[in-house]
Amino acid sequence: MMTDDDAQDLLRRMLDAAIRAADPAQVLASYLPEKPRGRCIVVGGGKSAASMAWAVEQAWPDVDLSGVVVTRYGHAVATDRITVREAAHPVPDAAAISATREVMEAAANAGSDDLVLALISGGGSSLLSLPRSPLTLDDLIAVNRLLLASGLSISEMNKVRRRFSQVKGGGLARAAGDARLVTLAISDVPGDDPEAIASGPTVPDPTAQADLSHLADKIGPSLSKVALDMLRAPSPDAGKLEPDYRLIATPQASLEAAAEVARAAGVAPVLLGDALEGEARELGTVMAGIAKAVARHGT
């Protein structure tokens, strides 16, 4: 019979296994491409960007590394060759704009023999922010606050974010020009769609030519006329990009890692899948209900 202490220990070990499955220090090195003939310019953004940059430095001590990544305040990691900037999440700030300009400039400085290594993770939609004209930072902040309160799905929110951004929807890839570009990404979205992870800075925007004004009703009447007009108009396309996009960690991989620990302990796990999304407090209530039912009925 499993005691409460045994159960708590098992849950802790399951959580640790799930985290290890998404830890750049554990998983990133095996996804790196061949070392470049020239420089490796590292760019990117997300809550794991600094940890990913550190892992690249550890894996490639003999490569000419430089570049800039941006992470959330308080998430910086000490690095030697790659610059780490911090900015606000989930609503962008002036530091995000400044850091994103640095990221875009670093990518643009790559030559044909260089490798641009993009490190992308959850939170990048806020941390990699550079509004398209005529939007200003204040406009972008207002839109993001409306999005967070709108009830839109992650996919819908990121369609809007791509439309308003110079860096999302392939913008970072366009900045890299003719240099080889490889993206290493940690997914935090249902389905692991590259265009949804950090709003797809290195992949084409599949909705670039679409009229997105139908989303304005969900965003609310406070959306400015400038923003509404931009939703109606097409955005610059990333063209004929053929992304080398490598998912180094996904929600499903972490779920499976946790499940394996449970099985080893003689507990049969039930995976609810990685497609659940919505308000955490609501999903938490659903999961608590499932747990109560299992405890009561045994199934």
Automatic annotation (TrEMBL):
<protein>
    <submittedName>
        <fullName>Hydroxypyruvate reductase</fullName>
    </submittedName>
</protein>
<keyword id="KW-0670">Pyruvate</keyword>
<dbReference type="InterPro" id="IPR039760">
    <property type="entry name" value="MOFRL_protein"/>
</dbReference>
<dbReference type="InterPro" id="IPR037035">
    <property type="entry name" value="GK-like_C_sf"/>
</dbReference>
<dbReference type="Pfam" id="PF13660">
    <property type="entry name" value="DUF4147"/>
</dbReference>
<dbReference type="InterPro" id="IPR025286">
    <property type="entry name" value="MOFRL_assoc_dom"/>
</dbReference>
<dbReference type="GO" id="GO:0005737">
    <property type="term" value="C:cytoplasm"/>
</dbReference>
<dbReference type="GO" id="GO:0008887">
    <property type="term" value="F:glycerate kinase activity"/>
</dbReference>
<dbReference type="InterPro" id="IPR038614">
    <property type="entry name" value="GK_N_sf"/>
</dbReference>
<feature type="domain" description="MOFRL-associated">
    <location>
        <begin position="11"/>
        <end position="222"/>
    </location>
</feature>
